[in-house]
Design brief:
Length: 230
């Protein structure tokens, strides 16, 4: 009987550790734990995620650039850039004439991004900094992106508020909404489609649109009102 109780307790502890460290990636243990976990896996991160370059180009880079085609050389901020996935995609596009500022709280992840982006020196800036507060003035970027990261930030609403602040009028926001079963494991941090849309509108964004993207995630688009889109 004692051994059975020990096994049950062990299973509970292992399940709890999986939930806290793997499924929710440390978010309920605080920002330092989240950053520490990403520091530990930085070198293996791209291999773990197994991004498909063709899929990413077709369903991420090109749709973003199409929405920015009226801006000759947009300055884009990528929040929680990780290993520089989006900057690398954008800068590889022949039609992209702009530049990217990429920000992340994990120095080892940024080190991986630096290796990936050496060919684009002068067009990309990497900054070691958390998502809130953002170290930029108001109305600074033509577009702000934050992909597969909101659920791991201390407050998605606070982070989005900062992203909207640094967007120029008529600027474009692209973020993501986790919708898989693990996303629902984030409990009160999980947002339905309607709740996410309402949040963006409450921050002043218009033309809010949520589209299917990949397994587990939607793309979420919004525009900061300005002279052309009021």
């Amino acid at each position: 009987m004692i051994w059975f109780l020990v096994l049950v307790l062990l299973a509970f502890i292992l399940g709890l550790l999986y939930y806290l460290l793997i499924a929710t990636e440390g978010i309920f243990l605080g920002r330092r734990v989240v950053v520490w976990l990403y520091d530990r896996v930085a070198r293996q991160y791209d291999g773990i995620k197994q991004f498909d370059a063709d899929y990413e180009e077709a369903f991420l880079a090109r749709p973003l650039l199409r929405r920015l085609e009226d801006i000759p050389a947009p300055h884009i901020l990528d929040v929680a850039t990780g290993t520089g996935r989006l900057p690398a995609l954008l800068l590889a596009q022949e039609t992209f004439r702009g530049r990217v500022t990429a920000l992340d709280a994990s120095a080892p992840m940024l080190a991986q991004a630096q290796q990936k982006l050496t060919a684009y020196a002068g067009r990309v800036t990497l900054i070691h900094h958390p998502a809130t507060p953002l170290p930029f003035p108001d109305d600074f970027f033509e577009a702000v992106t934050c992909l597969e990261a909101l659920e791991f930030l201390p407050s998605d609403a606070a982070a989005l508020r900062e992203m909207v602040r640094v967007l120029k009028p008529d600027g474009l926001l692209l973020t993501s909404r986790r919708r898989d079963w693990e996303g629902k494991a984030f409990l009160h941090r999980y947002r339905s489609r309607d709740n996410m849309a309402d949040l963006l509108r409450s921050l002043g964004l218009i033309q809010v649109e949520i589209t299917l993207w990949q397994v587990g995630y939607d793309q979420v688009w919004g525009v900061k009102p300005g002279r052309l889109r009021d």
